[in-house]
Amino acid sequence: MNSTEMGRYEYERNYEAGYEAAIVADQNFIRFRGMPIVSSMKSEDAMLVFNCMNLRTCSAGETIYEAGSLSKNEISVIIEGRVSATDRSGHQYSLLTAGDVFGLFSFLDEERLHSATLKVEKDVKVLTIDRPYFDMITHEYPVMGNQLLRFMFRLLSKMALQLEHEYAAMHEFALGRKV
Does 113 map to a domain? Predict the structure, then answer.
């Protein structure tokens, strides 16, 4: 390796190290990294997922989307703030906060309409990724695409576990047994 190549290699290595340091120090990454859904991932994998997402902020009172509306085919993770989820009749059935995810099912099923209206209760920061970008990543960068798929699998697994627990509690209640 000549001195020019050596200098270029050194520059690229320093650039990558600086870039990683900037990500690790980013407050939004710190919040994201602390969420249970990514806490078991290796730091490098969490950085890959984080780098694929866009930061979006919404103000209190803003409607993110309406129940029955067409999907933008994006998945979002709340890193700060609070969002209420209401059904079509306006009944609030959930309050989403940091670490909660929304839009997963309409992200995976492009023809699915949103099942809830999401309204910002307290200024919110969300990390989002849309389906066309995800498709491009999985095609051009399979390793990164695999990390995103694992991230979504963890989300689906977490949701399935919650449903199992809720079903078991309802079953026990219906049979008059203590949970």
Answer: yes
Residues 6+ positions from 75 with CB-CB distance below 8 Å = 101, 102, 103, 104, 107, 128, 129, 152
CATH code: domain of residue 94: 2.60.120.10
C-alpha neighbours within 13 Å on the C-beta side of residue 11: 6
Q: How far is CA 81 from the centre of its chain?
A: 14
Instruction: Name 1's Cβ contacts closer than 8 Å, sequence gap at least 6.
Output: 9
- Given a contact cutoff of 8 angstroms between Cβ atoms, the answer to whether 145 and 137 are in contact is yes
In terms of Cα–Cα distance, which of 76, 96, 97 is closest to 151? 76
Percent helix, percent strand, percent coil in the chain, to nearest 5:
50, 25, 25
Say if 90 falls within a structural domain.
yes
- Locate 153 and state its tokens: 């699998």
Task: State pLDDT tens for residues 136-174.
Answer: 888 888 887 887 788 788 888 887 888 788 888 887 888
What is the Cα–Cα distance from 74 to 91, expressed in whole angstroms? Answer: 24
Residue 115 belongs to a domain: yes
Count the domains in the chain.
Answer: 1
Tell me the residue range of the domain where 12 lies: 3-130
Unique residue bearing structure tokens 């870039």: 19
98 within domain boundaries: yes
